Amino acid sequence: MLAYVVRKVLSAVPTLFGVALIVFILFNTVGGDPTYQMLGRHATAKQVAELRHEYGFDQPQYIQFITYLKQIVTFDYGRSYATKQKISDMILDGIGPSLSLMIPAFLVTTLLSLGLALLVAYFRGRWIDRTIVIVCVFGMSLSMLAYILFGQYFFAYKMGWFPISGYEPMWPERIQYLILPGLIFVAVSLGYDVRFYRTAILDETNQDYVRTARAKGLSEGRVYFKHVLKNSMIPILTNIVIEIPLLILGAFLLESFFGIPGLGSMTIDAVHNSDFPVIKAMTTLDAMLFIFGNLLTDILYTLVDPRVTFE
Amino acid sequence: MTTKTSDQNRNGVAGFGAFVSSHVVGKGLLRDAWIRLQRDKIALLCIGIVALYAAVALMVQMGWLATPWDEVVSGAYQPPSFASYKTILGTDIFGRSVFFKVLQGTRIAMSVGLVSSLISIPIGVCLGAIGGYFGGWVDDLVVWVYTTVSSIPNIMLLIAIAFLLGKGLPAIYVALGATSWVSLARIMRGEFIKHKSRDYVVAAESIGASHRSRIFRHILPNVSHFIIINLSIQFMTAIKAEVILSFLGLGVQGQPSWGVMIDDAKLELSRGVWWQLAGATVAMFFVVLAFNILGDSLRDALDPKIK
Amino acid sequence: MGRLKVLIMALAVVFSGCSFKSTEPPNTLHVYVSAKLKGLDPIYTDDLYSGIQTSQPYETLLQYNYLKRPLELEPLLAESMPVLSEGGKKIVFRLKKGVFFQDNPCFKETKGKGREMRAEDFVYSFKRLADPALASPGWWVFEDKVVGLNAWRELALKSGKADYTAPVEGIKAPDPYTLEIHLTRPAYQLLYSLTMVYTAVVPHEAVEFYGKEFLNHPVGTGPWQLAEFNPSSRIIWKRNPTYRKEVYPSVGESGDKEAGLLEDAGKALPLADQVNVQIITETQPQWLNFVAGKLDALSIPKDNFSTVINEKRELRPEFKEKGIQLRVTPLYDTTHATFNMVDPIIGKNKYLRQAISLAYDQETFNDLFYNGRAILAEGPIPPGLSGYSAELKNPYRRFNVSKAKELMAKAGYPEGKGLPPLEYATLADSFYRQTAEYFQKLMEPLGIKVNVTAYSWPQFLEAMKNKKAQIWEFAWGADYPDGENFLQLFYSKNFSPGPNDGNYSNPDFDRMYEHSLTLPDSPERTALYRKMVDLLVEDCPWIFEAHRIGFFLSQPWFKNYKPSDLDHRTYKYYRIDTALKK
After folding, report:
1. Are strands C471-477 and C83-85 parallel, antiparallel or unpaired?
2. In order of start, what are the domains of chain C with their CATH numbers?
3. Angle at the Cα of B116 (from B114 to B119), degrees rounded to 5?
4. Touching check for C230 and chain A: CB below 8 Å?
5. What is this structure's pTM?
6. Of A82, A161, A259, the CB nearest to C281
7. Which of C19, C140, C460 sits opposite A172 (nearest CB)?
8. Which tens digit of pLDDT belongs to each residue from C189-236?
9. What architecture (CATH level 2) is domain A88-272?
């Protein structure tokens, strides 16, 4: 087991290197030189050269890449070009708002979609199944921007049920700002999740052992809850774990529209400002989370499903 | 698409006689699928909707429809009226027809879907096929490439590529094409691993078929239904992504796309101008819905595993 | 749907019910800024929004009188206006006594009590602006102007570290309350720069104590003390309990008394107890928050303009009834399209530029994009600044397509024939995308094709520097109320990356500009400014587009609101009428 985990972890190293390489190539060559922005419109050519030297932009590419690799290992990404703040502090500041939006929204989505999926899978083929699946597909087909613009205009402005945007770091004050974006997140992602889980459960219902169980005379409810549910947990768990790292950036539209100072809106700002250190940090961290998530799923597989071995 | 695949199929398999043909699911499967699809009324309706959008896109492209879209047809921000078909969805800030812009947006959406698929599908198929078929270090390399790409948040990749290529339609094509091949490559690799040891492939090898021939003439036709399913999803993702990119200011320049229209709506909504948002959203909604349902129906019809 | 609605309402009630017993004092201002902040170190605040915030805790030698228009300088940390001698090359300030820095843990010797400010602190603060390692965007304020400061900077560059103990000949503190500045040449505009927050006084203890984190821990002499700071969501300022006695002005311009702006004359500042500054970047929530009464003041977003203001430029009755006030004030800015003057086609062909300028229909533009909240720019200098002339009628700004076509022929491109498509650069956002489309439409009748490229801000600046386009959209907001601030944009020694982004160069202009620098504000200088403007009108290095007019709303309970785009140190004058707000 331990050897398996170690091997898995080691296998993540080349991926991480690949990520670093791509991120470096893409963002180091694009996005404009930040120097002009840092010095403002009164800058002189001499000042630009001085600043470029100060920040090491004039060093050869491979040295800059090595510096970046060092940063990945040490988790020290330095300071943002645009805000001059320490990136680790910016991330720590952003994690709170991001998570207080995403954790409840994600939990609600997952529980609700699991519940609905169980319901529709149980009643598969009947009207309730059809209706819910159709609603899900409708929900999936609407652009997230439409949800946001409509939600902000109608529920917050016209009806006045929620604040239009903003954020307060205090509890419970912050909750009122998170409800509407949270609901929008649920609305946007529910459709996909319900359908995914429904398929996962139905896949299991078609397995031979279910037929055997039924043939043995076990009641439908017993088959369903005892066998089907247990076994369909694997794809469901995978989906959940895979979605976790996506949560952080996945909400960038919600965050920037609702003025929530989380990691998503921070990343978008960084892109607009060619704030390379922040982009590097966020992309790398997200990739690391993703890789870690995959790792975790692999390990979970071996725990949940005896068929999978530590090859 | 369908006919082409079956042609390849026929040519590729003709020489192997009865022994091989029983393993060739491609042609029969497609026919079966088509029969099953025909029974599925909703799927047919969706095909109709997609065809309609495609026709509109084509007509706009040829200049038969919604041209010139940048003509001033009325005052600025006129609400929808039935005075003329041009003002049926109202006008925008310059007094241009929102209806025409929606139609022009259809062209862009469909072209984004099409071109990005034309980029991503060959990449996905080739990488997946090569990795799955050859195994060993080639496979390791393929897996490394797609794990790496899929580990980077998609939106960041999109943004970076859009920045790199400068903005505009070509950049969107490439950005979407270059980021959306991963899932297809993954599926293809899995299928090729399954198929390469099947009897018909072994048989083909025994009569001296080259690697290339085995990959493209024997195995590929048998797994091509995954490409069709993927195409439907790819279209939908591309259309949605175009909207987000345009919203971030990385989208189409100087042409009316749905994303640009929704972006405009951000400024217009509070002054009560809802028709651009509504027009673009509804237009987008139906085509995405059609692709969504179609994707499912195709999966049901083509993938014998789930019935 | 019905059940969902009930659920949502129930949720909303639960959360709005259990929270929000506000702990803030009733006399709390609720304002917003529309961009995320860069931090609160004076030497880095080069954008408007960070500038406004940094101006609250920090103070400068001079400030603008809050009420008078045109803007007038008055002493802030200086005891009186400075004495200028040696033909404007020596400036002597007497400083106020009993000015203390805010209490802060960085003052270790006094166990956190703020110490008294001395003239030495200014010497230190000015050196920070020049320190090459800090790379301040505000270095231009003193660059080439203060005796010995450039040399001090050079030395720091060579040795790799600035020596703050090394004296600079041009900035001296002969005693704790006297500050002497020696200039290499007369620089009358420097006094205006001494209101800019770049030149604010900071205590070296704080810089040393907080190191790189100094930008999050402002320690100034000002009326507001930082209580909470999140650069991307909000700032809370609390009244500085040790603030010296400063009072609300008792003289304003005509009309101020009627507008109720003199009711608090003579009262001690700051008038409010707390300021909550929200960062709201999208215009829709700004507007909606104001309408909901959650913001005290608002610059009306373009798309809400017609809902608030009628055709006569007055507040619509439904807003008037609520007691909402409208204030209209011209902004000291000039929007423009810059021509790339080193481009072989557009830079070398005056007629082509004039033709484009003539075909640029500004009035329709102002209606479409500014709701008419702008006046046509005839030249670079906005009204209210010396050198502006209401009589100036720029012959190339009278919208006239047929005359533009004639000029196109004269330029060698009749009907646009032979002219390759123009490369036009702008910013990637909805507003600029629409204005670019507008430009494309206007150039069509001349037969000019326009390729638009939209950039992010840093990319845009880089593209300008590398002259990747032939024409680009830009705006300049005044740093200080002097026409010179706009004329320097055409001085050839300010080539990009300096402020002369189009690299316009004209020896006649340069000579006049250099001469104008040696003159104090006088009819002679104003006449010279006008001559320079005439030259620019003919050379047409920009399409002079518009000078914007600000339309600001305030709630009935928000007192003493008089917006200005140059005066940032205004929170101390505002007050909430708590009785009205109930």
Report:
1. unpaired
2. 333-549 (3.10.105.10)
3. 110
4. yes
5. 0.81
6. A259
7. C19
8. 899 999 999 999 999 999 999 998 999 999 999 999 999 998 777 899
9. Orthogonal Bundle (1.10)
